[in-house]
């Protein structure tokens, strides 16, 4: 049964005449322009940052305005536009956000409450830049027009550009505007009359005033300095950089420019400008820079916001959109999980087995179990009623369905929240009926709670409304400046959980506020007079529990006492009984791309996740313990150093994790291509990438020590005796030796070499030390430390992806589904074993010395083989 609600009813006659056309319109309207709301980070490009007092504002291609504290913890989220939120400016009273085409509007919000006050419609194209100046708001964009607004009404239209206007600033009594054709125009501020322009011949991307001079950054890497001298505007080119200058700011002493993923520090000098130093701060192009209190805030095209010290030390990052997160609901013996990727899964809690699954086309925002039925709302405004994994009814709304609650009366209706509306959903004689029962304009309904004839509704603006179920007329009963994430009941009192960790308790007359140490706070429960909060940590009464990821949802399992489920932002759902984790329901983990093994087995995945597994000796199986989720592309290499787990990825970054807590501790940037291999020697990390770079990192402070550039080579494997003696394999078939800064290479194979290892040990005879490399042609090449070719042999009839030396034996793994073991006697190989009980190619394999096992994978799961089984 497909049911269309409210706004579709007026099209009923049209539907009868042209049902196919109507269906197309419904899909396009719902899925193309539905607004969504989540209190997560950005999921795509962050276009601009703006600081005001202690708050950082960001806008991005996901159409949102987000507010952060200085520690980059989220404070608020506003879905501002149906398209990109392209630019922002903040005044003492207002926050203005400009929209990209086809939206083309400017949204103006009250700075204190973030309530929408004005929607400005005058531009005929995208709004690229905004500027508050005294009583004016000034905007410009792709319609080649500058608009001066007074009292948020158009006052003047300046037609002084013949290209898209990219940036505006104020300089010495002038409004300065720069466009995509390189024209920089000066207009007087007293009457907004054009005075003169300069043709810089390259797109103007950044404008910044520093020490009474105007600096201009352009797309060809040029930096110009303009100076008003005795009424005359003079300028000079002071720098020529290799790529576009996207952003310019200063710390009061130096200028800071972003070029690609670097931040370049520049000293302003009488003649020209001097580069003082530069830092790698992002693997993708930096879009915006802000400096506050000697701290640099950097945004990029991947949706990241980073925090660095003024001397370039990594300090942290903002949480991104939780692409693996899930909403949960428990009832009877079942747990239902609705995921960000659209999957809905129902599990039997007693045995942990999947009962059924359903794949929706957009993200799930809530799930509710109701006997055999499951109700789910999604980000596109679709409401699903499912039974046994099959859709029974579908309803469509203009915007996302965010929350729901059950009325336990005889009628048993369900109440739902979306943008500005409260709905009821009721099963009437076997037919589900959806209707709007209340309107709360311009606020997202984030939580609903039903209590004794009253519906309590919490919104994204921190407002709490009471709706008498006789009239459903909203009455504002409390307002607090943080989004409401959950409403519950403690004895006879209403409990409201706010995103910033505040818990407000209402006894019917007075509100009492207490502050939790859980911040951000994403969900809350009250069970037997005990308050439970989940977010940055899990707090149950006076006890707190840390996980490797934020907790984004909680659900009570009423079948047994003191039993709850917690959904983590990495996709894992944990069942907690009496404060102990008793079961984990993992997300759909993608194919394993690399394995590291010792006492722990650590896997890198094609989707960028890193998973940790413990070996249960009694049950002879691996159990998933944690998932690290921050890489945006496949993880290609993993290693360990003391308490750290280190992962390298195709996203051009290396990430450092705490092996106990799972927290991300550092991000190492400097590669411009896939980071394919990492190797620890002493206190040094050696990384190699397809960009031809070999970088040495000090693991005591995570600072870069040295960079070697190997033109036209792509690094695939690393082995090192010390930081002064490093050996590499390459995609081009070379073996490279870096010995005390001297680089030597030989062409060992006509095809790619994928792996490298050595027979070196602390007790090795120096004359007997060998280097073993292998790759595409299935051959093993044996070299000495001077890269002299000692010999070679055919190991496999297919590609060898991994070569490992252990306990006097050489192990090779290939795409012929074989792991072979070789004894090398007098430089001659003897095959002493082969293991072939695999269904597919061996692409990932490791040896655990601690467990005495070879660890490999069938793609998603782990397979372990006792070492003795692999050879005779």
Mean pLDDT across residues: 92
Number of strands: 82
The largest pleated sheet is described as: 7 strands, antiparallel
Give start-end ranges of low-pLDDT stretches.
1-32
The span between the termini is 64 Å
How many distinct helices?
Answer: 2
Strand portion:
over 45%
**Class by SSE composition:** mainly beta
Radius of gyration: 30 Å
* Strand line-up across the major sheet: 37-38-39-40-41-42-43
Helix content: under 10%
Report the principal-axis shape: flat
State the main characteristics.
mainly beta, 7-stranded antiparallel sheet, 4-stranded antiparallel sheet, 2% helix, flat
Description of the structure:
With 872 residues, the chain is mainly beta. Helices cover 2% and strands 59% of the residues. The chain is built from 2 helices and 82 strands. The strands form 20 sheets. The protein has a 7-stranded antiparallel sheet, with no helix packed on it. The longest helix is centred in the N-terminal third of the chain and has 15 residues, at 19-33. Residues 1-32 have low confidence and may be disordered.
